[in-house]
UniProtKB/TrEMBL annotation:
GO terms for molecular function: FMN binding; L-lactate dehydrogenase (cytochrome) activity; L-lactate dehydrogenase (NAD+) activity. Its cofactor is FMN. This is L-lactate dehydrogenase (Cytochrome). The active site is at residue 277. Its EC number is 1.1.2.3. The keyword Oxidoreductase applies. It comes from the Bacteria. Residues 1-382 form the FMN hydroxy acid dehydrogenase domain. Belongs to the FMN-dependent alpha-hydroxy acid dehydrogenase family. Coiled coil: none annotated. GO terms for cellular component: plasma membrane. The keyword S-adenosyl-L-methionine does not apply.
Amino acid sequence: MFSEPLTIADLKKRAKWRVPKMFYDYADSGAWTESTYRANETDFARINLRQRVLVDMTDRSLETTMIGRKVSMPVALAPTGLCGMQHADGEILAAQAAEEAGVPFTLSTMSVCSIEDVAEHTKEPFWFQLYVMKDRGFVGDLIDRAKAANCGALVLTLDLQILGQRHKDLVNGLSTPPKFTPKHVWQVGTRPFWALEMLQTKRRTFRNIVGHAPASSDLSSLAVWTAEQFDPKLSWADVDWIKERWGGPLILKGVLDAEDAKMAAKTGADAIIVSNHGGRQLDGARSSISVLPEIVDAVQGDIEIHMDGGIRSGQDVLKARALGAKGTYIGRPYLYGLGAMGKKGVTRALDIIRKELDVTMALCGKRDIEEIDREIIAKVGF
Ligand code: FNR
């Protein structure tokens, strides 16, 4: 029915066919009018590359480091909540695919599979993303669990003190409190492969949170508890105590402003991720790629800079690298892969991006990702 997926868009089509609508829409949505969600993607197309010819293009290398960790290309998997609802055991499968591909996987606080589930099924240290909840005892426990699981970095998300509103989730009843209706039964019933796989796993709720919330342990009660738990008072002082409690490599995620980037650099964290949460928080915010150059200029090498938002190809990764991101993250591209084909689909998403990155770099006349800088950019149209 579907031909071999050659692009991330092909994986997206397959995921739509395989995943129940409420969970597919959860991935493929942004806040309010989705203008920032769209801009993240379309602004990449406003950057032109310089084509070079008759330079040696043999023996190319995409290897680099992100916060000192060797990576096979400058791409990591971003933390995504409910990843295990795109496919049964989704976080475990994505982490295994990332490990095989030599890139970091980041597990979300709001994952279905827990820190311990993923640790049990992987060999390499993965990264753990932390949301700061009002219940600081719980936050401390999460940090300790990530340490015990030998996580390689803590990714602290700064841009979700309160939840942005996504219309598709409200329409689908994937809101708080969730409304489970005959429509959902229909949506699941028409996705039999997904449903069968889901029936075969015991991992079907927010397993990092089970046992902490006073509510019962089903997905909807935990979602209600969590939505009330995001801390609107989160401050730079909190970053200091989290850094101290964690004691390992720290990445600050969700910086979109040059002044905030300077503050972040002062915390002594190892990296920041220039990000607007994939257009899921402040609709009307600028795209991540358009903000990246001014943040790079503002911090002037004081802290390593990563970015995410809108990357759908290897060309996009190369453009981000050229504009100063040492590393990038993909969210939806691997979720589509996971929804479409499970672990194989995540591997496919990474393979697609790797191939595109390699060929694009060569056509720009470069053989090593470490040589990439603004010189390969012909024009920036924003
Ligand atoms: C996210 N994102 C996210 N970020 C985070 O820090 N913690 C989380 O739990 C989630 N959850 C989440 C769920 C889904 C379905 C999506 C699509 C995104 C944001 C994510 O880490 C990343 O910033 C964006 O996904 C990057 O944009 P692209 O690659 O999806 O365009």
